[in-house]
Amino acid sequence: MTRSSPRLWASAAALVLAACGEDLTPPPSSDLGPATRPDGGGTSAENILQTLRSGDWGVLAREAERAGLAELLAGPDILTFFAPSDLAFANPSAAVPSDPGLLANLLLHHLVSGEVDEAALRGSGELTSRAGTRLGIEPGPPLRVGGTSLSVPRDLRAGNGLIHGVDAVMRPPRIDEVMASEAELSVLRAALVRASPEVQAVLSGPGPVTLWAPVDSAFGDLDPTQLDPREIDALLRAHVVGGQALSAEMRDGQILTSAQGTELVVLREDARPLSLVDVSGSTVATLAPEQRLANGILHRVDGVLNAGQEGPDDLLDVIPQTGLTALGTAVSEAGVAPAFRSSGPLTVFAPTDAAFFAARALPPEPELLANVLLHHVVVGAVSSSQLAEAAPLTTAAGTRLRVEATIPPAVDGVSLATPVDQLASNGVLHVVDGVMLPPPIGAAVRERSDLSTWARAVDAAGADVAAALDGAAPITVFAPVNSSFGGVDLDALFVDVERLTDLLSYHVA
């Protein structure tokens, strides 16, 4: 973070950092149609990656390397890259995913096979990217690709293709957005509309996930919209796998586990499409190259996977069964459903709908709402009779809850209501009559003895700094422990307020 003054602290301005996902994934397979020059070269000595490094695309080059695409951009395949400049990446709306696999999806959305110069673009209605996504062409003026205007340079030739500058980072669609726009996925889309908010959030959330999407003809006489809501959820979860399951990486006999908990066995034979064998022994085959999207992978398949026997209810299932509509909605909006479905064991203190209605100060930002909800989830299963002896309780947010041995017991000043001790496959749920808010950063710092020097520094910097740490703006603080200050003249530092404020600001994002 750049240097800031006490005035900047008073404004409590913050940079919100977005993050997601997990897997580093290589470029897609040649199924997406790479082309190569017969001589393996071109009119420029530099390949696309080298050209990016030496031009106005330093950020793009670094991100391509982080996404595992360096070999593709420096290789023999002939490509056309619609390249956002460093200035385009500097736009606040251009934040890229931290997950390398999802970053690769985004960058492959800017890349097409073969050389497509400006003249060819103007004569095209649509291109298919190396992510398997569609890039619409608008001849203009201005000439637009994928909703983004071409800038300069255009037709910049590299040894293995062309580069066109574009004025913004293009976003591939999410999985649910592709389902909403594709005619051959209308049956699955109708099922998703009737699914629970938690299941819908899986396909519209940050990912990464993989959807094996049956096309309309795969359903035959089955109308999933006629199933009850729990059956619809089970059907959809049976077609979702966590992470990015790329065709090029899957091996014959590999076992995938669906979000429903069923096993899917990969069947890979020469000259035949990749297939999956479900729990009933039925085989479904992929129909087209995968699409690499903003939140994961979409494979179209020619059959419907068996959801198997539904497993015992987990904590996320118990929430609506207990009539906690507001909590279920909040969990979906905050994107923390996986935490409530984890293997646990966990204890959830579940606020009533009335408690959520009364808690008017809940943060609107999903990431801060997630902090509040995880403050209600305790690691380990603790029955109502064990609360007092288990105190203090450590939450999934890393915070602590105090317990008061009153009748009924209270947790952080919020009383247990009825029902309590609702058992689930991964823990226990207690209804409570209020929403518990985690402490602000400043208060959390003061609770820890190993951060006492940092707390003293905040106090010495003045009220504006302390107010910023306890304010509403989403911030991240990297707080040095006491031993980090060894060799620092604290007396001299604490009286130099401007220097001290600068020092503190370096530790805040």
What would you say this structure looks like, in words?
The termini are close together. This protein is 31% helix and 18% strand. The chain is flat, with a radius of gyration of 27 Å. It is built from 22 helices and 26 strands. It is an alpha+beta fold and 509 residues long. The strands form 7 sheets. Strands 1, 2, 3, 8 and 9 form a 5-stranded mixed sheet that branches. Strands 4-5-6-7 form a 4-stranded antiparallel sheet, with no helix packed on it. A 4-stranded mixed sheet has the order 11-10-17-16.
Helix and strand topology:
Elements: H1 6-11, E1 35-36, H2 48-54, H3 58-66, H4 70-73, E2 77-84, H5 86-90, H6 100-108, E3 111-113, H7 118-122, E4 126-128, E5 134-138, E6 144-145, E7 148-149, E8 156-158, E9 161-166, H8 175-181, H9 186-193, H10 197-204, E10 209-214, H11 229-237, E11 240-242, E12 255-257, E13 263-267, E14 275-277, E15 283-285, E16 291-293, E17 296-301, H12 315-321, H13 325-334, H14 337-341, E18 346-351, H15 353-358, H16 366-374, E19 377-379, H17 387-390, E20 393-394, E21 400-401, E22 403-404, E23 410-411, E24 414-415, E25 422-424, E26 427-432, H18 441-446, H19 452-461, H20 463-469, H21 490-495, H22 497-505
Helix pairs in contact: 2-3, 13-16, 19-22
Features:
single chain, about 500 residues, alpha+beta, five-stranded mixed beta sheet, four-stranded antiparallel beta sheet, 22 helices
* Spatial separation of the terminal alpha carbons: 6 Å
Poorly predicted tracts of residues: 1-43
Q: Determine the fraction of residues in helical runs and give it as a percent range.
A: 25-40%
Backbone shape: flat
Query: Helix segment count?
Result: 22
In total, how many beta strands? 26
Category from helices, strands and their pairing: alpha+beta
Mean pLDDT: 81
Strand content: 15-25%
Rg over CA atoms, rounded to whole Å, is 27 Å
Largest sheet: 5 strands, mixed
